[in-house]
Amino acid sequence: MMRRLFLSAALLASLPSSVGAAEVAPFDLAGPVLRVMVTHDGQTLPIDQVPQLAAGDTIAVRADLPKDQSAHYLLVTAFLRGSTNPPPDKWFSQSETWSKKGRKGVSLVVPEGAQQVMLFLAPETGGDFPTLRNAVQGKPGAFVRAAQDLAQASLDRRRLDTFLVAVRKPIAGDPDRLERITPLLARSLQIKVNADCLTKSPELQASCLLQNQDSLVLNDGHTNAITDALSGPGVDLALQLSATPQGGLGYYSPYIAAVRDIIGLFGSIHTAKYQYIPALATLDGDAMRMVLNAAPSFHNPKSVLVAALPIVAPVRIPPLEIAEPDLSVCAQADEILLPIAGAPLVYATHYAHDLSLRVAMPDGGALDLPAVPDVERGGLVVKTGGKIPMDLKAPIKATIHGLWGFQPFDGPGIRLQPARAGTWRLASGADPARRDGNVELVGGAAACVTRVEIGDDNGRVVNWKRLAPDRITVALGDDRRAGAAIVVRGPAGFDPDKIVMAGAPQPARFSATVIARHLERPPQTTPVPILLDGNDQVPADATLRISLRAADGMRFTSHETVEISAGGSDASALLTVAKGLTIADPRVAIATIQPAAMLGSSAFGPLRARVVHDGVPGDWLPIGTLVRLPTIQQLRCPEDQAAPACELSGENLFLIGSVSATPGFENAASVPDGYPGNAIQVPRPAGKSLYVRWHDDPASTGRLGQ
Q1: Distance between CA atoms of 63 and 286, rounded to whole angstroms?
Q2: Which of 55, 343, 634, 659 maximizes the CB count within 10 A of its CB?
Q3: Average per-residue pLDDT for the chain
Q4: Which element (helix H / strand E) includes 186?
């Protein structure tokens, strides 16, 4: 049912615009404490365990004020019975909290026909009790609505406070905590969470989640149901008004809407003598602590603090539901977590108490295991204490049981799976050689698996995932050797299952040979060309194409890669069909290699290639020697033919090992290692060329010139 938070038509018309538009002051001022106990059919509970009242209940209320309390408060209680039916005088009572008798409080019996109970703390004045009684009898509808909205706002505030406490809790050494628990808090408490906050760094997540606190609370049908006692033809009109921006619900959460409603209601009934201040109730045992949003005044108009007790109505049992479909629970686990959703007040209040998981035992008896709500884990935590027999053979049923206030209730049921040693086995057709490294196991109770290892004793822990109540998948990764054991561990007291793998056969190494090779150099634009004398040399700026033929019995499938490596450095590159590798046919592939672009400017030395198939590399194949070449700008010799030396200028001259005028390298000029200059002295050429040995391949020669 939609939450009925609205302003009456007359009140909407009479309120100043500032009431509808201004921000409501936060409820952050601690007020007085009341002590409240409720007795129903001979059983007594503190107020924090009582969601609703019934006719005939006995309510004991007393003010728990400081011993040095200087202001005298009159405690007034009033039962209400509808917006058009003023309560009789006998439904009001008073207690002078400063007197010996008044400090004991009052004992009230809920009369037949009552719908709400309101509590007033008013400063002592002459005629204070009749004045308050007349105010309620004169405008019962305003106080009926205030009682309902105070109860609703108090419950919404408790959901919000539960969320804030969890988010603010400091937990050292767990930076991922908020990211882990926030979705569970949102589900359990029906809280709106800004998902963007979880993308921030851990130290910024909490402050982000705590922004706009009053708008975090979402509508919750069960919370609304236990505070909603209004009915009648005026409700439809008021609901229509509540959907307007002026009514609050168009822009605000239920919590803000309720608070705005209360402020407006009390603003319409203040007098020259009294003004009414709403008090939200935070409950702890029998303590009902008032939280105010305005400081009380002891001058005219004096402040009357107003709080509400639970409504008088039939009990609304929380609609608990299992939050995870197909839930599988292990009977012999030391701890059981039951993911529960549908009733935020189970987590935010103590209305649900004495909770247990009632297990139907095989002998026909019942076993109650205590259950405790844990909002951060999003469910009920059940400690089994070893009470379920270890030799359980078949699944058994269990039901959530507890008390909602005074009313016993049963929640959803589950099935508990027994842990059985020696039942896990490889699934039919399971292949340890699967490319993704996963293997499936069947036969055991997935809910009872606590850990999976690879190896016999103290093996390596591996990841696993539940696929079905009797099926899991285990991530073996690369550890698929023959004879290795998968160890599946269960609850304490059960021997682990060991599944020995036959071992995954290693994929065959792909064998290929180079059947053709083509080298293409870019055109040389410098005045002094560089000529290579060896067929094996591969200039860094060239393009090399090699043709590879697969060995007999092997085929290229387009899933292979070709790895290229230069022996003079750690540089390597991979060719794929998307980049550099072309499958000519199932037997032949062509690899296109651009060394400078693929391996970088520091790569040199023996150039080699190998085919990688299914992650298994083949043998290296030599495909040339990578040589980096300098850029020669000019060879300048003196006109005097007797002068023995010339000057060779250019860039990267350190790539030259030595220069000679003859092919035998007699009287060669050596270039120092790492030479940074742009000119060197070289012998005068005997013809049109100089002979060069390269830094990257000293065994090969080249020529400068024609």
Answers
A1: 11
A2: 343
A3: 82
A4: helix 177-189
Distance from CA of residue 38 to its chain's centroid? Answer: 41
Distance, CA of 675 to CA of 488 (rounded, Å):
64
* Phi, psi dihedrals of residue 661, rounded to the nearest 5°: -85, -15
Q: Are 432 and 502 in contact (CB under 8 A)?
A: yes
Grouping H, G, I as helix, E, B as strand and the rest as coil, residue 345 is helix
Strand partners, 283: 288
**Cα-trace Rg, the chain:** 43
User: Angle at the Cα of 338 (from 335 to 342), degrees rounded to 5?
Assistant: 155
| Model confidence pLDDT, tens digit, residues 508-522 | 789 999 999 999 988
Digit-coded pLDDT (tens) for 12-48 = 333 333 334 445 567 788 999 999 999 999 999 999 9
Output the six-digit token pair for 545.
């194409």
pTM here is 0.61
Burial class (CB in 10 A: 0-12, 13-18, 19+), 485: middle
Q: Name the residue with tokens 């004398």.
A: 533
SS (H, E, C) 217-275: ECCCHHHHHCCCCCCCCHHHHHHHHHCCHHHCCCCCCHHHHHHHHHHHHHHHCCCCCEE
Alpha-carbon separation of residue 447 from 97, 200, 369 (angstroms): 58, 34, 18
Q: How many residues does the chain have?
A: 706
The β-bridge partners of 703 are: 531, 691
Q: What's the token pair of residue 673? A: 């290692």
- Helices (H) and strands (E) counted in the chain, each on its own, are 11, 44
Cβ atoms 253, 242 nearer than 8 A: no
State whether residue 159 is helix, strand or coil.
Answer: helix
Per-residue b or e along 236-263, where b marks 16 or more CB atoms closer than 10 Å to that residue's CB = eebbebbeeebbbbeebbbbbbbbbbbb
CB 504 within 8 A of CB 480: yes
Q: Which residues have CB under 8 Å from 521's CB, separation 6+? A: 539, 541, 542
